[in-house]
Amino acid sequence: MATTSPTWPRQLRLPGQVAAPDGPIDMQMMYVMHHAFRRDLDLFVAAVRTTPVGERATWGLLAHRWELFAEVLHEHHTVEDVGIWPALERLGTPEDATVLAAMEAEHDEIDPLLEGCGTGFQRLAHGTARRSVEDTRAALAVRVSAARESLRRHLAHEETEAIAIIQRLLTVADFARIEQEAGPDLGLAKVARIVPWAAYGVPREALDRIFAQPGGRGTRMIWRCTRRRFARVHARTFRYV
Fold it and tell me: Which residues form the Hemerythrin-like domain (predicted)?
């Protein structure tokens, strides 16, 4: 039976999250990103169905939000593919390697779906003939729903099995080093885009816990400066949901 060390952090649990394996590494930021991915795909599925095809300004906002979503998801997967999974493959068992190979295959399944969705949002934002626009919306609805289902399965698989391997094989220092080496360069402008997006809809008690961590004071300041504008744009983007 697995045991919990009194020195291990209490893992964050957010709406929609499937599991939070115990271990030495505090995976809170991983779970915040997963929450944002699930939240946005639910909203995109609803918005594609309910936004009038003639509302080009709203489709433009949806296309812009999709770009942010897809960019962050791509970078999130890159850190895993380039840094985390290879490190675990070197340390783990053949059974671990099977799980990690599935993680990579699931990323490969998701990527073309994201690209197709991005193309669909751009076409609706720019508009064409009425029939063509209706066909584009119908195709986009299928692609966005497929992306949501694929990513849901992947996140559930990652939270139950892959993160358990991370907790078993990596130290806190290992994980921090991998994130630093494989992670994207984040300038202030990019951080100011990502922080309010990632924090939106996260329960306040969870945000307070994140802000209390080392380095969290700066994140809190960025959130306070950007959250209201983000909320206004978010409301316009998903006004028909």
Answer: 29-162
Report the C-alpha gap between 166 and 54 in whole angstroms: 47
Question: Which is nearest to 26 in space by CA: 155, 163, 184?
Answer: 163
CA nearest neighbour of 216 among 37, 26, 5: 26
Closest by CA position to 12, among listed 31, 34, 39: 31
The pTM of this model reads 0.95
Average pLDDT over residues 89-104: 97
Contacts of 113 by beta carbon, 8 Å cutoff, 6+ apart: 143, 146, 147, 150
Helix, strand, coil tally for the chain in percent (to 5): 75, 0, 25
- Section 125-150 average pLDDT: 89
From CA 139, how far away is CA 109, in angstroms rounded?
18
Cβ neighbours of residue 215 under 8 Å, at least 6 residues apart? none
Average pLDDT in the chain: 94
Handedness of CA 163, 168, 169, 170 (dihedral sign): positive
122-127-123 Cα angle (round to 5): 25
| Spatial distance between the Cα atoms of 104 and 80, rounded to a whole number of angstroms | 9
Asked if residue 187 lies in contact with residue 44, where contact means CB atoms within 8 angstroms, the answer is no
No. of helices (H) and no. of strands (E), the chain: 10, 0
Q: What is the CATH number of domain 28-186?
A: 1.20.120.520
**pLDDT tens per residue across span 169-222:** 999 999 999 999 998 888 999 999 999 999 999 999 999 999 998 889 999 999
